[in-house]
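Task: encode each sequence below as structure tokens.

Item 1
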Amino acid sequence: MASIAINGLTKTFAAGDDAPAAVSGLELDIKDNQFITLLGPSGCGKTTTLRMIAGYIMPDAGTIHVNGRLVSAPGSVVPPDQRGMGMVFQNYAVWPHKTVYENVVFGLKVRRTPSAEAKKRVADALALVNLTGLEQRYPNELSGGQQQRVALARSLVVEPEILLLDEPLSNLDAKLREQMRVELKRLQRRTGITFVYVTHDQAEALALSDHIAVMHGGRLQQYGTPQEVYGRPANRVVADFMGLVNLVPGKAGGPGIVEAAGGLKLQVPLPDGVKTGDSVEVSIRPENIRLNASGSGPRASVTEREYYVSLDSGPALRVQTHPGQVFAIGDNVAVEIDTAQCSVFRN
């Protein structure tokens, strides 16, 4: 459908030369027919970026091109209704006084689409989001998930090349949110539309995305596949944000060796420029640690049933064990770490 090229995108809302930028120097290359997630904590710049893509906010610097066409630059912004995009908001933004049909057909009426064609396109859009038969209901007669589907249908009925979604599932309960994740991914595959999705939920991003842009402090920290940002984080910020992680201090002990706290000696690739004796941190995911009652690894004591273990003269580690593996608090165990799955950062 459409590709998006973002180059040097910057936006500052506060006054003053030293005011922090909401988005600073953002570079993103979003391919056609991809599900892309802008992920990060509150205030990281992800929603500001989405609104600049939509055309609601003018950048202070940088450009946005869609299929090679310049749509945003300082002093020049193509209006939202001329961008071929749809947008789904966090609060659904459906009109309470209009029926499902009236909500969905609204954009087609604005475009003066002939009534017969509009009726067919509304029927197709409602079928796409599993709302067939609910055309005459009002929003207060629908569940939260159904209202979100109305918002999706309203965006899809105008046949956008790009669909922008601003935390659309955050108001749903956990079970419904999981169901909607599956439906959103299926919808993207069926339509071939480029999805740009904003969330602070790591699980959502990992489940839905072809690529994830991790943002922090207005800057892009890493852009890659879910496997890359989770398994090969670019820096400490990404490692710490993407789920549970143990960050263990240590020193570079030689080529490919880290001597970490608690007597851990790990053979892991070191970042470029790290020299023997330099302080580093090793990121170790809980699922990459194994515990054994007997073994040759460093010894630790089980301190919590979840599990946490405390290395002898070292830090506590969060461990994700097999459900069938049971230890008691106080058990002395050997700790084995899959160093191939670890990352090292300068301290």
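Item 2
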Amino acid sequence: MQRTVIDQLGREVTFNYYPERIVSVVPSQTELLYDLGLDKEVVGITKFCIHPEEWFRNKERVGGTKKLDIEKIRSLKPDLIIANKEENEKEQVEELAKEFPVWISDIHNLPQAVNMMQALGQVTGMEGKANQLVEEIIQGFNDLNKATKPKRVAYFIWRDPWMSIGRDTFIHSMIQTMGWQNVLADRERYPELTLEELKTYNPELILLSSEPFPFKEQHIAEVKAVLPDVEVKLVDGEMFSWYGSRLKKAVAYLQQLAVE
């Protein structure tokens, strides 16, 4: 039986219902599929799909999120590919969509993440589990005690060049959810700027993410050399940017940061 749904880009996607051979090319959505109980159905993941570890070790890998192995995906004969507008390359996704059903997410905030989880629950026949997960996540964020003082925060995702996050990003929405202020909220999505330039934004706290660039202790010293009076912290990037089932774990992590 075939079914047609609308994905988060407003595209019609027609696929076998229920899909039995899923390729996921987005790490946070791969983890979601695992938490929905779709073990045998998921036949391919990317090399960045590190959760759960047993899938990372044992599932067929189809390249990286930005450099998919199209031939490998073809060989897996998927009846559904799950992708993301930002994390995957448009040209590659379009090429795959000529041959296979591709469901694409587009996520900038918590409501869109919730919508994606519910939609994938419906698409995969795991609606009950998805709804339960969503309820727990929504309850968790509703109970989150926001920071009493809206700290002025800058969040770095890359070095050389230094790259931060501006408006209309999921990380920006997480910072706001905590009750903090993103000092680069007036900038484009992923602005490049020097540490000297950042001075003019007068941040109180600089967060160095664990991904995609793996910031370490030595980078704190590098930032402090330019902004000696600003607090600098290493943070778990998955808790700020993985918009699937990891949000369940993110609540406690963000809560702890907000009250420190």
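Check on item 2: The radius of gyration is 19 Å. Residues 2-134 form a domain with the Rossmann fold fold (CATH 3.40.50.1980).
End of task.
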